[in-house]
Amino acid sequence: MTTSWPLKRGWGAAAEIVKALAAREGRELKSHGEFHKEIARLATTTGYEDVRHIWLSAVALHQNFYENWLPPEIVEKSIEDVKKLVEKLKKLLQL
Known about the structure:
About 80% of the residues lie in helices and about 0% in strands. It is an all-alpha fold.
């Protein structure tokens, strides 16, 4: 489970949904810092405070893609977290 495919897909899914929400408001995210600021903004404006914590699972997967230091069980749980994040944020796109 530590192959790069799930790691890249987890980060990619999280990043794309955050970019889509920003784009809906006319903003383009161009750096990791901007992604983190967008997550903080979303948590504050939507009341979805847990997205801050769930987002960190996606960040860990992204870092692990390059460093491969996470054990498989953490990778698996982080991928589950990212799925929850995407589902939660998809609801905001439908508003």
